[in-house]
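Closing statement on the zinc ion sub-project.
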Amino acid sequence: MPTYEYECTHCGHRFEKFQSILAQPAKRCPRCGKRVRRLLGTGAGVIFKGSGFYVTDYRSESYKKAAKAEKEGQSDKTGGKEAGRSISDDKK
Ligand SMILES: [Zn+2]
C-alpha cells in the first residue's frame, strides 16, 4: 500500500496517509478541516526538491535581511543618541 502525502491549502499542515489506491483520498485537514491537496509521489519529488531549494534559499535570504535590519536598527538607536549629543555640543 502506498503512503500518500497531503498538504493543507489553508494552514499548510502536512500529513501522511497510508492507504490503498482504491481508498478515497483524504480531503480535509485534520487540524483545521479545510481542503487538502495530495502531494505527488516519487516522480515529482525531484521537481519539488528543485523548486523547494529555491524557495528555501529565497526564504533564508529574506530572513538574513530581516535579521540584519534588526541589528542595524539596534545600532542605529545607540548611534542616533551619540549623534544627537554631538549636535547639541556644537550648538553650545
Ligand atoms: Zn489545515
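Helices lie at 42-91. With this model delivered, the sub-project is considered complete and its resources will be redirected to Aim 3.
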